[in-house]
């Protein structure tokens, strides 16, 4: 039985087709379980011959040739018509799928008789989406934020497409994906989501020529958007579901060109045309019986700044929209750690986040006459507007704590609930408040990857803030100071155990986690923090180490190296969880009396060199003591402390900027190396 048919429209992909082909041939499903259907849309490059050769070599690959239709819609429809699989997966010619993608997506779909299966999307052309925060066995458009994911790169039950006559619009047009997905979501009875495995990779091409990046005319784009809006209205009854779906298209597809930074970057002609076309569409699709749209149900459910933009649009004030965009462009976010601690196997961070102006002052809410108003510095003096009602300023305020894996460019979401509150600003100013989001984020490496364990590597912590209708993604930072020495402590967690080393990276102070010791950070931490005392228990030695270990954590196998190169001994050891973790190894050195370097290798591959953590004192062939080498970490800590102080950091780079060009470049290079060295 063919479980999945992969449909790939192809038009002049050049060399970028290869990575797509390779990823599809490398699937964990057997060739008998899936087929790849390439639909050549009249390509004029070498790809038709390349595809025919591929089909001749692989029985589960088929190629269909047709005259050029100008857009992916018709090739996709032709592919579905010719597909034989229970499910159909759409893939673009310059994208890739992970090896287990089809198998995992089909499994959750078959298990739930799902009409649509969403696989986690990653890559350089997509932002992290909370749609993929976790696995979801069964949901619908009514109870999940599916409308935030409207690309068609998903898996569909073929009979669902056929029974509902779901087809892509054909011919050259924009937003055909959104139109198709709106109709599909509104008809689907069961949707499933794979959130713990990155299935689909949407990467930007080196030549910036991705199939979805072609620019279209302004009027044509918004004409196609009206079809999407009409499809939402046709598939829903009046009420909150319809309003929620329409708000998404009003906020993103309609208003994105009238917000910062885009509005400020366009030429005058393009900006003016876009303003006129968007305004026409807003009146045509959202105006009520009074002829206005800014006060209707759809706009009324938007956050304050977006409602303000809608009002300026309705009042025909492009100048006001541009001034608002200039002011909002200078707003930035902040996210800081107030407290950090290990609880069982999780690193818990008390987080506080919000919005600031460029000068560091808070974006405020002012209480006047029994109502809350948006910060006057954003609103006062705008065309036709002097103040703006913020409604309940906490109602739309949200924050997500995200974890970014540097090696794979994957984003994961930390379990957290950051609650918005109004915090009074300044003594004697009880009418002025800041919206602050605060709560505890939990980083459990055993489940943080959408319920699955994190892969080895370095992970950086970010917070995505949305408040008053402004969204900002910022680093989760820790201020400088020694108070974190007892919190940024290494840990072993799980069984089998994994080594977790938290860091405050420099120069920005971002909270990061090193997972499973590829860079052997643990040894550096032990050297800096100090080890000991040493206890002899028969032939085995126990060395106290500053490592957290939760109940139920298993031992971690390591290697202990005693002596210098050429005469060293490598001993098997282990980090044993206890009330205070210990490094345990057998005393069989056979080294001469004296002092010998004591080093640790935690890299399981054995390819990394051992890192010194102390000095072993040997007498009569026995280790009788171990001395730490924390003093060697003093220069590193001094540099770290200096680079963590913002004032000193600014003064140093001002001094560098005053140097001649060549000397300044060399000084910057040294400064960057020192910063990285102090952070390692």
Please tell me what the overall shape is. globular
Give the N-terminus to C-terminus distance in angstroms.
Answer: 53 Å
Q: Tell me the count of domains.
A: 5
Oligomerization category of the chains in this entry: single chain
Indicate the low-confidence ranges by residue numbers. none
Which CATH architecture of the largest domain is right? Alpha-Beta Complex
Main beta sheet: 9 strands, mixed
If you average the pLDDT, what whole number results?
90
Would you tell me the structural class of the helices and strands? alpha+beta
Q: What would CATH call the class of the largest domain?
A: Alpha Beta
Radius of gyration: 29 Å
- According to DSSP, the number of beta strands is 31
The number of helical runs is 18
Kindly report the name of the CATH homologous superfamily of the largest domain: Spore Coat Polysaccharide Biosynthesis Protein SpsA, Chain A
> How large is the share of residues in beta strands?
25-35%
CATH topology of the largest domain: Spore Coat Polysaccharide Biosynthesis Protein SpsA, Chain A
Proportion of helical residues: 25-40%
